[in-house]
TrEMBL record:
It is found in: Cell membrane. InterPro entries: DedA_domain, VTT_dom. One of its GO terms (cellular component) is plasma membrane. It comes from the Bacteria. It comes from Sphingobium herbicidovorans (strain ATCC 700291 / DSM 11019 / CCUG 56400 / KCTC 2939 / LMG 18315 / NBRC 16415 / MH) (Sphingomonas herbicidovorans). Keywords: Cell membrane, Membrane, Transmembrane, Transmembrane helix. This is DedA family protein. Residues 30-160 form the VTT domain.
Length: 198
């Protein structure tokens, strides 16, 4: 995967970074842990500007998050309740679970949204409760940019500092990301197996 990402960023520049980071939020297996360090390395080589690379990556992340927010906002809480009534086991939510999730998210969204952008898998998923439970759009936008900006800045800086060894970021963080996503998937399977309607 790394070769085609490298070629794509070298050919497309800032637009390529933004597009890949957008796709990373739509389709999580595309790794930001490779895209943004590569962007950082490119800035060290003088091919890109550091601020431009950071802005492009964060804009792509923001666009992907906004996509899922819009989809979830369209579905809405009532739509989620209908889904839970029909497919509760597969989304592992009953009506009481939705009430609890709504209350928890509304209490904690000020930290949950930015922190989720630091965690693989969750950076895509966090936009869904934000949309479903009608988090104010401006607050969602600010907190998303904050969380995505911090994560992307760390990755760009790592790539810039490591130079040609920028791939080390993905070599070390990649397995951690895969492990976190595997744990999330196993937790989902556990919830499916233990699900009781209600």
């Amino acid at each position: 995967m790394s070769d085609w990402i490298t070629d794509f960023v070298e050919k497309m520049g800032y637009a390529g970074i933004a597009l890949l980071m957008f796709l990373e939020n739509i389709f999580p297996p595309i790794p930001s842990e490779l895209i943004m360090p590569l962007a950082g390395y490119s800035t060290g080589e003088g091919k890109l500007n550091l601020i431009g690379a950071l802005l492009a990556g964060t804009a792509g992340t923001f666009a992907g998050a906004l996509f899922w927010y819009a989809v979830a906002r369209w579905l809405g809480e009532e739509g989620l309740r209908r889904w839970a009534g029909r497919h509760g086991r597969w989304i592992t939510l009953g009506k009481q679970d939705i009430d609890s999730l709504d209350a928890w998210f509304c209490r904690h969204w000020s930290w949950a949204v930015p922190v989720a952008h630091l965690i693989p898998g969750l950076r895509t998923l966090i936009s869904i409760p934000a949309g479903i439970f009608a988090m104010p759009i401006l607050r969602f936008m600010v907190l998303t940019v904050l969380g995505a900006g911090v994560w992307n800045a760390a990755l760009v800086s790592a790539g810039y500092g490591l130079g040609q060894e920028f791939g080390a970021v993905d070599r070390y963080l990649g397995p951690v990301s895969m492990a976190i996503m595997a744990v999330l998937f196993l937790y989902y399977l556990w919830r499916v197996a233990r699900f009781k309607p209600g």
